[in-house]
Specification:
This protein is about 0% helix and about 55% strand. It is mainly beta. Strands 2, 4, 5, 6, 9, 10 and 11 form a 7-stranded mixed sheet that branches. Strands 1-3-8-7 form a 4-stranded antiparallel sheet, with no helix packed on it. The model has no long low-confidence stretch (mean pLDDT about 95).
């Protein structure tokens, strides 16, 4: 069973930074395509950023480009989301997502990011 454990959420002021991390565990030797999604209060879940299983290719939503950076450590299947120049509208629960080589999807429980204006 694959488990995703997120950490790093919290409170930040607008213009500040936070770094989220997500560790995938459960299957030795597997590499995961990983991503971050978020759900803001009263809104549907939306895509934030993704990174390929080899950690080379990345893609981010327009709303976070130039501010958020996704990265991955393949050795331990940990993905990071460096969030800079945070805005009030970045307030949300951030969810880690992983997809294995068979196409199965896994989700973390989420970590809350609150940005004060």
């Amino acid at each position: 069973q694959v488990q995703l454990v997120e950490s790093g959420g919290g409170l930040a002021q607008a213009g500040g930074s936070l770094r989220l991390s997500c560790a995938a565990s459960g299957r030795t030797g597997e590499r995961y395509h990983m991503a971050w999604f978020r759900r803001a209060p009263g809104k549907e879940r939306e895509f934030v950023a993704q990174i390929s299983s080899d950690g080379i290719s990345t893609y981010s939503a327009d709303s976070v480009k130039g501010r958020f950076t996704i990265s991955k450590v393949n050795a331990d299947n940990t993905v990071y989301l460096q969030m800079n120049n945070l805005k009030f509208e970045d307030t949300a629960i951030y969810y880690c997502h992983a997809q294995d080589s068979s196409g199965r999807d896994y989700w973390g429980k989420g970590t809350l990011v609150t940005v004060s204006s």
